[in-house]
Amino acid sequence: MELGRSYLLSGITCNEARHVIGIRLEEFVGDQFNNLNLSSLPSLDFLILSGTGISGTILDQIGSLTKLNHLDLSYNQLTGSIPYQIGSLTKFIHVDLSNNYGLTGSIPYQIGSLTKLTYLDLSVNQLNGSIPHQIGSLTKLTHLDLSNNYGRTGSIPYQIGSLTKLTYLNLSINYGLTGSIPYQISSLTKLTYLNLFVNYGLTGSIPYQIGSLTKLTSLDLSVNQLNGSIPHQICSLTKLTHLDFSQNQLSNCIPHQIGSTLNELNYLNLRGNQINGSIPLEIGCIKDLVFLYLDSNLISGEIPSQLKNLKRLQWLDLSYNQLSGKVPPFITHNCNWTIDLSSHDNLEPYTPPLCNGDEHKNISLRIKISLVVTPVFLTFVILGFVFACLWKKIKVQPESTTTIEIGDLFSIWDFDGRIAFLDIISATENFDIRYCIGVGGYGSVNRAQLPSGKVVAVKKLHRSEIEDPTYLTSFKNEV
């Protein structure tokens, strides 16, 4: 069938000379990919085999496809390393090798030769080693995703500041990245998305130059070892809707300008730091705020009444701080809020009103306030809980069952997967949306803090995706 100046047959596109210039397949290919003689396709312009179940390695012959500008082998089962010959494909515009899970080795430094590249995605594999500094030569890149490569080491190269056309940068969940966030990142003034979540080894302070990224809508630097103050320049990022600095070692006060300038925020997470001072009154000005997490810090003072202006708020966690005074009545008047005020000995308890005549336990509002109780009452509570647990265990579990103590989840993984599962369910409150940190081509990634204190990323495959064999196979391979 003629299509303009080319012919299209079963996903194969040919030019008038009957040379194959494009392959775009959607049906299952499997290991037949290994039988493809790439060197016999010198005119190939695009090769798109995403989600076709191809396996094996990326052949060195790919270096002979010098006219290739679009390569998509994502969501497959490829293994082995990325051949260095890929550096010969200087006409590349789009490269996607993501979600293969089995690609290993380092990113070849020859990738710096692909100066026409605008899109590069190598995420969700097992690539290791450092990010080559030659990546700074890809000055036309608008999208760069190297996330979910657990063997990554080294620091973020400062040359990344040369990628001034980037709008999307994701280096999250690499675990081994170390060093500081290079201040040169401030040159990426077109960025709308920046994610460095779960690298553990990133240290130093948040560079104040980050205030130059005024087009950012999402900024996530959580679960690292960043220290120092939250730079007030962050308040220049007026288009932010998602801001997450949680699980670091940040200290000092929350800049009060956050409330008066970041008016489009709907997600603000500063939990698990060493932030002190009071809750800025100006936070009550963030009218679109839905999620507010300030728990597990050193925040003191009273809960500001200005929070009553957050009409869209659904989740408020102020637990494990040093708050004092009365709990404002407005906190308990909205039955759609989920609130955690636990572990505040100096907060005066407040009894929530009934909603629609229902009992407290049936309303959607959840308030946790630590109470100062007498030693006798506390003793009865503990004994009652112990006896209840023992009775339930006797009734439910067979005599042959061996009790396993929950501690470090990874130390018992091989012994009782049920406990591991229950810990994850508990840590994510049955995969509540609050714990969702990203949605990829399939499934969602959730953050879970386990009883041992470890923070892990957990991928959940949705029910509707289980019926798709491609998604299910990819999911099993990732496990």
Keywords:
17-stranded mixed sheet, three-stranded parallel sheet, disordered N terminus
Would you mind describing this structure in some detail?
The chain is an alpha/beta fold. The strands form eight sheets. The chain has a 17-stranded mixed sheet, with no helix packed on it. The chain has a three-stranded parallel sheet with strand order 6-8-10. Strand 2 and strand 3 form a beta hairpin. The relative contact order is 0.06.
> Helices and strands: which structural class?
alpha/beta
Helix content: 10-25%
Biggest sheet descriptor: 17 strands, mixed
Overall average pLDDT: 81
| Shape descriptor | elongated
Radius of gyration: 26 Å
Number of helices: 7
Strand content: 15-25%
Distance between the termini: 43 Å
- How many beta-strand segments? 34
Which spans have pLDDT < 50 for at least 5 consecutive residues? 1-8, 357-383, 385-419
Summarize the structure.
The chain is an alpha/beta fold and 479 residues long.
What are the SSEs and their pairings?
Blueprint: E1 2-3, E2 6-9, E3 12-15, E4 20-24, E5 46-48, E6 55-57, E7 70-72, E8 77-81, E9 94-96, E10 102-104, E11 119-121, E12 125-129, E13 143-145, E14 149-152, E15 168-170, E16 178-180, E17 193-195, E18 201-203, E19 218-220, E20 227-229, E21 242-244, E22 249-252, H1 257-261, E23 267-269, E24 274-275, E25 291-293, E26 300-301, E27 315-317, E28 322-323, E29 325-326, H2 330-333, E30 338-340, E31 347-348, H3 375-396, H4 409-412, H5 417-427, E32 436-439, E33 444-449, E34 455-460, H6 463-466, H7 469-478
Parallel strand pairs: 4-5, 5-7, 6-8, 7-9, 8-10, 9-11, 11-13, 12-14, 13-15, 15-17, 16-18, 17-19, 19-21, 20-22, 21-23, 22-24, 23-25, 25-27, 26-28, 27-30, 29-31
Antiparallel strand pairs: 1-2, 2-3, 3-4, 32-33, 33-34
